[in-house]
Amino acid sequence: MKTILITGCSSGFGLETARHFLDRDWTVIATMRTPREDVLPRSDRLRILRLDVTDADSIGRAVEQAGPVDVLVNNAGIGLLGALEGVTMDGVREIFATNTFGAMAMTQALLPQFRARKSGVIVNVTSSVTLKPLHLLSVYTASKAAVNAFTESLALELEPFNIRTHLVLPGRAPDTAFGENARSRMRDAIPEAYAPLAQSVFAAWQQPGPVTHAADVAETVWRAATDPSCPMRLAAGADAVALASA
Ligand SMILES: NC(=O)c1ccc[n+]([C@@H]2O[C@H](COP(=O)([O-])OP(=O)(O)OC[C@H]3O[C@@H](n4cnc5c(N)ncnc54)[C@H](OP(=O)(O)O)[C@@H]3O)[C@@H](O)[C@H]2O)c1
């Protein structure tokens, strides 16, 4: 029986991915900053562990408690919509601490066991905003584009150890808590001069069009985890797939 460890399972893509693998008889280590037993079905194949990917001690404890893991999914992430002028450098560091350095630190923590066993899969969830730049997302996009470049270079050094790396690029998913969770960071992020631009961005989101659902991401992570012949980069969701094939 295979074991997957997923970061950021309290909601959205991480939660749906945990459900998807549980339904398919995997052992799931669902990690959360604030562990909650009630968001996933009870199962003797489910373990919920506390993990904050920005905290080295938390990472050390979680990886020790987890034991052997076959697949790591770096899904935990935070968003920020705003003009660069409206974001402090502490705000920039906060985004990178979770989205970029968190994924690197988790990967570093799992690699020794993957290398020793000469097997393992690392799936990094980034974003389709790295395929086509969008307004007011410069810092967030940079944090995810860094993970893309990191993953593609890392793949080369891990190949001799039979460790696979994949990127899952979801499109915009208005159904998850992502936008709401980002709201507190956006308070001063849109200075007056950028307000008309922000209005046009919000208006565009109201237009009908393809979006991404959490199930699309879970299925794509499943493909990355279970199909060794699949491409390194996988778009997830109708909008992301359209962008990737444009
Ligand atoms: N939704 C979209 O439109 C979209 C599009 C493309 C890519 N993505 C990416 O997909 C991933 C999942 O997003 P989502 O839509 O599922 O959003 P979400 O519902 O907000 O889920 C994000 C998860 O990350 C967790 N998290 C945040 N900071 C953390 C930290 N320091 N340590 C551990 N966990 C942390 C959150 O936990 P708490 O409950 O503790 O905050 C939450 O469980 C993110 O990496 C995001 O950047 C999202």
Question: What this model shows, in words?
Answer:
- α1 (12-23) crosses α7 (214-226), α2 (56-66) runs parallel beside α3 and α3 packs parallel to α4 (138-158).
- This protein has helices at residues 12-23, 56-66, 89-117, 138-158, 178-182, 195-206, 214-226, 238-244, and strands at 3-6, 27-32, 46-50, 71-74, 120-125, 163-170, 233-236.
- By secondary structure, the protein is α/β, with parallel strands linked by helices.
- It contains 8 helices and 7 strands; from the N terminus they run βαββαβαβαβαααβα.
- It has a 7-stranded parallel beta sheet, sandwiched between helices.
- The chain has a single domain, classed as Rossmann fold.
- Bound molecules: NADP nicotinamide-adenine-dinucleotide phosphate (NAP).
- NADP nicotinamide-adenine-dinucleotide phosphate is lined by residues 7-14, 33-34, 51-54, 75-79, 98, 102, 125, 127, 170, 172-173, 176-178, 181.
- The site of NADP nicotinamide-adenine-dinucleotide phosphate has 30 residues, from α1, α3 and α5.
- GO terms for molecular function: oxidoreductase activity.
- Keywords: Oxidoreductase.
- This is Short-chain dehydrogenase.
- InterPro entries: NAD(P)-bd_dom_sf (IPR036291), Sc_DH/Rdtase_CS (IPR020904), SDR_fam (IPR002347), SDR_oxidoreductase (IPR051911).
- Belongs to the short-chain dehydrogenases/reductases (SDR) family.
